[in-house]
Amino acid sequence: MARISAASVVVVGSMNVDLIAAVKRLPAAGETVSASSLEKRFGGKGANQALAAARHGAQVTLIGCLGDDPDGRDYRNHLRREGINCSSVNTVKGGTGNAFIAVDAKGENQIIVIAGANAALTAPALKMQRSRIEVAKALLVQLEVPLETVVEAIKLANGREVPVVLNPSPLQPDFPWGEVSVSVLIVNSGEAKQLFEAEADDLADRVDEWKNWLIQKKIRTLIITRGEKSTLVLNESGLKKVATHKVKAVDTVGAGDTFAGVFTTHLAEGNTLMECVRWANVAGALATLKVGAQEGIPHRGDVQSAMNA
């Protein structure tokens, strides 16, 4: 069992039922490849991150929408079994969100997402959850629900100085950078290149330039995950690198979500930035050891054991 912390984390985000196809290699554009198996699992970035935080001991409230279909009912029961507060998860008419995922022999993946009920999480509906956000120790958001809803959640958090952790995936070109404040932005190297139009591997040679970008976008701290390479952490104090935990990955789906959920839990607990990243690095690595976005998310004790090994 994860130890229960004082960390109250609110996650605003998506819930999807994943259909995962195992392939030898990922298809190129216009190409058809054969799959050796197809599995149905729970996923969605919002729920994945909420579950990672909950398994790490946080008191998690998830704000989102499920369909009134059997998948929605099964998903709600699943979240409750994981100890996640689902009182802010609305049931709406229609289907629950889906994701179609291809995973190759190296554990790399391609993902297609269908919003379904996730699209029903509107800004007015989000405002009804104002009190939950304003008393949280941290707010964690992604971009698989409507953009205006995410922005409204961040504004509510900003109004009460609640730390905001944003994992802007999938990237949205219309995100109002500079109009809202982000405490921590978590991206992978590909997302960092799209967002800042520069290579993350070259950051060390352009620290001042990247710092100016953060100021312009009202981002306090930038974290860039780079797979097996060290994680980069940049803020006004400068650039730091945090070593990753070496494993032989089976499936990378959900690793980034695990990183975000565990990082946010430690941030909400009041731990130092570097300590938050160290925990998240190890948790993200361990999450790649099993197939599925949620099946591999480790509990706090597993992460602690790996860190002490």
TrEMBL record:
K(+) binds at residues 251, 253, 287, 290, 292. Catalyzes the phosphorylation of ribose at O-5 in a reaction requiring ATP and magnesium. The resulting D-ribose-5-phosphate can then be used either for sythesis of nucleotides, histidine, and tryptophan, or as a component of the pentose phosphate pathway. GO terms for molecular function: ATP binding; metal ion binding; ribokinase activity. It comes from Prosthecobacter fusiformis. Its EC number is 2.7.1.15. SUPFAM superfamilies: Ribokinase-like. ATP binds at residues 188, 256-257, 281. Its cofactor is Mg(2+). Substrate binds at residues 16-18, 44-48, 144, 257. The active site is at 257 (proton acceptor). It is an enzyme of class 2 (transferase). This is Ribokinase. It is found in: Cytoplasm. It comes from the Bacteria. Activated by a monovalent cation that binds near, but not in, the active site. The most likely occupant of the site in vivo is potassium. Ion binding induces a conformational change that may alter substrate affinity. Keywords: ATP-binding, Carbohydrate metabolism, Cytoplasm, Kinase, Magnesium, Metal-binding, Nucleotide-binding, Potassium, Transferase. Its main location: cytoplasm. CDD domains: ribokinase. Pathway: Carbohydrate metabolism; D-ribose degradation; D-ribose 5-phosphate from beta-D-ribopyranose: step 2/2. It holds the Pfam family PfkB. GO terms for biological process: D-ribose catabolic process. One of its GO terms (cellular component) is cytosol. Belongs to the carbohydrate kinase PfkB family. Ribokinase subfamily. Transmembrane segments: none annotated. Residues 7-299 form the Carbohydrate kinase PfkB domain.
